[in-house]
Amino acid sequence: MTATAVETDRSVRLTGVTKTFGEGDAAVHALKGIDLEIASGELVVVLGPSGSGKTTMCNIIGGIESATGGAVAIAGEDISDRKPSQLAGFRREHVGFIFQFFNLIPTLTARENVEIILSLTGKADGSRVEDLLDAVGLADRADNFPAQLSGGQQQRVAVARALATDPDILLADEPTGALDLPTGRQILGLLQRLNREGRTVVIVTHNSSVARIAHRVVTVVDGAIESAEVNPAPADAADVTW
Questions:
Q1: Is 191 exposed, middle or buried (0-12, 13-18, 19+ CB in 10 A)?
Q2: Four-residue CA torsion sign, 80, 85, 86, 92
Q3: Do the strands 43-47 and 216-221 form a parallel or antiparallel pair, or are they unpaired?
Q4: CA Rg, the chain, in Å?
Q5: The domain spanning residue 142 has which CATH number?
Q6: Is the pTM here over 0.85, yes or no?
Q7: How many domains does the chain have?
Q8: Domain membership of residue 191 as a residue range
Q9: 124, part of any domain
Q10: Within a 10 A sphere around the Cβ of 137, how many other Cβ atoms?
Q11: How high is the mean pLDDT in each 10-residue block of the chain (242 residues)?
């Protein structure tokens, strides 16, 4: 992949965003009025303990879940009132997801796991699949099934899959959580490189060490933003340890 300038709107803006699960006495207030702006081309780490609301916030940014209240604008588009079918189309056009446990289809090869995303968008392109796997260093493992790949290799396939539709924004939810330190560094390095090529990257994690690579660290506690601090000197992923 060649480096690209940030020419399109790849920003995130949440205004007064709330999310409530359930009703009445059983209601759980997962988000309590989130105000957050992420600039185009920024690498932000959302940090917080389990149950803090950070994954819910990530899912709302990506259009997997809808907010209960407030306004959500992603890549310059207001998605606050969109129906589930509209959100699905928005995700395909603008957002790439990377998950902790890879979520690869075990009966498909690495190549096919990437191809299936393109086929869902009607943009099947064998050469693009090869380019993506090459970009994550797995061109020689394209015909291997997930069970034949290491955890780090599976996560790199997941990154290639997330890039299939050339998304404006990459959302990574605990992308190093199932990996050892050397492999985790490789994945963080890959995300850092993709950010330097112009993509907005949001990494959700409970691991404060990962936050060292961020331009800005947003800490979420009990459904609210506790702090949002600029990191004046982001570390190189190769120097991160935990």
A1: buried
A2: positive
A3: parallel
A4: 17
A5: 3.40.50.300
A6: yes
A7: 1
A8: 12-20+29-230
A9: yes
A10: 14
A11: 57 97 93 97 96 95 94 93 88 89 94 89 75 92 96 93 91 92 92 94 96 97 97 94 90
